[in-house]
Amino acid sequence: MAGIKVKAKLKSGVVKVKAMAKHNMTTYNQAEKKTGNKDDANFITHISATCNGENVFDMSTSQFLSKNPIVKFKFKGDFKKGDKVLMSFEDRKGKTGKGKGKIK
Amino acid sequence: MQRRQFLSLTLGALALSVVPASVRAEDFRKSKPTVWSAHKMDDAIQAMFGTTTTIEKGVKLKAANVSFDSATVATAANGGAIPLEFSTKIDAKTIAVFQDANPEAAVCAYSVTKYSVNEYSIKIKMGNPGTVKVIVEGTDGKLYSATQKLNVAKGGCEG
C-alpha cells in the first residue's frame, strides 16, 4: 500500500511536520539496469499538505529524493492541537498516496 | 435519480481528491517540464527562473550527519540518502534544490504558501561527488542561493 506517514507537532505557534512517503523512487538509471527500460522509472513527482482545508505545503520533486523519502517542513497560522494535517503524493505513473496526522 | 446524483457527486469528489495540489498551487512538473530534464545545473536554473544570476546570501544550507573534510567539503557516507537541511528568512516565493552529480540536475521545488515557515529538510540521492545548490526566489524577484560541496563514499543511484 502506498501511503504517507505524517507526524505533526505544535510548538510556540509553529507546526513542525515530519512525513515519510512509502515509495521506491526508482531513477531512470535504476530502471534501465533492472528491466532494460528507462520508462519503468517511477518516483514521486508531487507532495502536498493541507490543514483545515488550507494548503500549507507544496513540493514538486524529482527522482533524486531518497527511497522512502522523509520530508520535514514547518508552517504557522491559525492552527491548534488536534487539527489534522492531510498529505498526499502523486508519482510518475499517476498513482497517489495519502496520509494524515493529528497535530500534537 | 437520487442515487445517480449521489454517484456523480462521489465520482466528482474522487476526481478532485486525486489532483489535490494542481488546482491550488503551482505544480512545477507541469508548468516547467524542461527544468526536470535539464542535465546541467545552470540549464535547469535557467529553465526554472529565467536567469542564473544569484546572490549568495540569506540562505542556510547544511548537509547533516556528514563529516567535514575541510570547511567547504562535506563527505556523506551513504549517497543513497544524504540529509539536507535548508532555511531562509527571506520573504520567498519559490525554493528549489539542484545538484550537479546526477544525470539530471533538478531535485525539488517548493512553492511557498502563506503559512510556510521556510525551514525544510529532505534526503537526496547522489551518484557522484558534486555540488548542491539551494535557490530561493524572493518576492522581490531576486534570487538568493547557498551551495554546499559534497563527497559521497558510496554512490546512491545504483541501488
Taking the sheet with the most strands of chain A, its summary is:
4 strands, antiparallel
Q: Strand arrangement, largest sheet of chain B?
A: 2-3-9-8-5-6
- Quaternary organization: heterodimer
Helices of chain A, by number, come to 1
- The count of β-strands of chain B is 9
Structural class of chain B: alpha+beta
The end-to-end span of chain B amounts to 54 Å
**Strand content of the residues of chain A, in percent?**
over 45%
Percentage of β-strand residues of chain B: 35-45%
Which structural class best describes the helix and strand composition of chain A?
mainly beta
Helix content bin of chain A: under 10%
Major sheet of chain A: order of its strands?
4-3-6-7
Radius of gyration of chain B: 19 Å
What does this structure look like?
The complex is a heterodimer of chains A (104) and B (159). In chain A, a hairpin with a 2-residue loop joins strand 3 (44-51) and strand 4 (54-61). Chain A has a 4-stranded antiparallel β-sheet with strand order 4-3-6-7, with no helix packed on it. A 3-stranded antiparallel β-sheet of chain A has the order 1-2-5, with no helix packed on it. With 104 residues, chain A is mostly beta strands. The longest helix of chain A is centred in the first third of the chain and has 8 residues, at 28-35. Chain A contains 1 helix and 7 strands, in the order E-E-H-E-E-E-E-E. The two termini of chain A are 25 Å apart. In chain A, 8% of the residues lie in helices and 52% in strands. Chain B is of the alpha+beta class and 159 residues long. In chain B, the strands form 2 sheets. A 6-stranded mixed β-sheet of chain B has the order 2-3-9-8-5-6. In chain B, strands 1-4-7 form a 3-stranded antiparallel β-sheet, with no helix packed on it. Chain B starts with a helix and ends in a 7-residue tail after the last strand. Strand 5 of chain A pairs antiparallel with strand 7 (116-124) of chain B, so a sheet runs across the interface.
